[in-house]
Structures are given as C-alpha cells and as structure tokens.
Amino acid sequence: MSGARTWATARRVLQQLGHDRRTVALLVLFPSVLMVLLRYVLDQPERFDRTGPALIGIFPFTIMFLVTSVVTLRERRDGTLERLMTMPLGRLDFLLGYALAFGLTALLQVGVVVLVTVAGLGLEVGGSVGLLVLVAALDALLGTALGLFTSAFARSEFQAVQFMPLVVMPQVFLCGLFVPREAMTPVLEAVSNVFPLSYAVEAVAAIAAGTDQNLVRDLGIVAAAALLALGLGAVTLRRKTA
C-alpha cells in the first residue's frame, strides 16, 4: 500500500465527481431535501426532534452506499479498473482511495445536512454540532465501505441497486428508528445488535441528546465495521465484470 497511490486514486475520483453535477447534487443536496420534506410531513417540532437525529445518520449512509456501489461497478464494467490494476496500484490502494474521496464528499454532504437541519429546521442538539458532523460522516463512510464491498458481487447497476433491500433496509428497520431496540422481540433485538447502523444511529442520538453514554463504544464498532468491509472489499475486488 502506498499513500501517494491512494491519494492519486482519491484525486482522480474527486475530479470525476466534479464533472458529474447530477451525482454531486445527489450526494450533497438530496439528504437535505429529504430532511426538509420530513420536517413538514411530521409537522410537529417535538416529533422531528425525536426522529431527525437518527435520519442524519441514516440518509448519508444509504445514499453513499448506493452511489459508491454503482460508481465502482461502472469502473469495473468500463475496464477502468482493469487498466488501473496493470499499474503499480494495489487493491487496497484502490479501495482506500475511493473511501478517502467519498469520505471527503461525505463530510461536505453531512455538513450541509446538519446546517440545514439544525440552523434551518430548528432541530434541538444538546451536544457539539461539530462532533455530530464527524459522527454522521463516519456513518456515511460506513455506507461507502459496504458499497465498495457489495459492488464486487454485482454485474450491472441494476444488480448493485438490488443489494439495497438486502444490506441497507434491514439495518434501517432494526436500527431503532421506528421502535426502540430494547422494545423489540429478543430475536429482532439480537439481530439489530449485529448491524453497525444500529450503533451509528445510537451515537448520533446520544450527541443530539447531549450525552456521551456508550459513545466511544458505538463509534469504535462503526469504525471497525467500516474497516472490515474495506478489508473484505480488497479480497473480493475483481478487475472486470464477468
């Protein structure tokens, strides 16, 4: 692994994103649009204060998973990855470069959504807003890592999208957004304890509530899950689509 090659990969991805305005709009603006829509659907500030923090983590996670899996698959299908792998570029360099590029994009994405949600929509945050941005960006990075991993098993953009019901939606349903995890049946609670998004949502909710209860543990689990997904992605990465 080389830091120079990793950064070169990240810079190339950022340059490509800069020329794709629709993807940039989807990454940066769409979560904020969803938060605005949710605020007026709920129509009550106290209900929004209860639901909003969880969605600050869920929306970036979901969107980064979708965009990363599709973009990575396109690189492999178009032969870009195969050409890159003929150069002195390791699989881990490639994946870390993508993770770095989309991680920087996630910081911008989350910064915008937190600004809109807190300053524009009046979400009450008891903890540090800066820490909230960093934690939500880590959630987005988790979605990026899972998207990089699952893209190895898809042969088309449509198949990449099909992984969302398998990888993303169960985590969204069981993360505590709709029902507190401790109120679920023992089986569902046990399953939710395996999903990293549960801990990401718990960390965001703790910061919004102004408490650090289990915060270090939750962030450690999310970071470990992201690193594990990147490692598995390096093992399963293929040069081209069969």
TrEMBL record:
One GO BP annotation of this record: response to antibiotic
Family annotation (InterPro entries): ABC-2_transporter_component (IPR051449), ABC2_TM (IPR013525), ABC2_TM_bact-type (IPR047817), ABC_2_transport (IPR000412)
Highest taxon in the source lineage: Bacteria
The keyword Transmembrane helix is assigned to this record: yes
UniProt key word Cell membrane: yes
Spans through the membrane: 24-42, 54-73, 94-123, 129-149, 161-179, 219-237
Span of domain ABC transmembrane type-2: 14-240
Cellular compartment(s): Cell membrane
GO molecular function (one): ABC-type transporter activity
Main location: membrane
Short name of one Pfam family: ABC2_membrane
Keywords: Antibiotic resistance, Cell membrane, Membrane, Transmembrane, Transmembrane helix, Transport
Gene Ontology, cellular component aspect: ATP-binding cassette (ABC) transporter complex
Membrane topology per record: Multi-pass membrane protein
Family listed: Belongs to the ABC-2 integral membrane protein family.
Protein name stated in the entry: Transport permease protein
Organism, scientific name: Kineosporia babensis
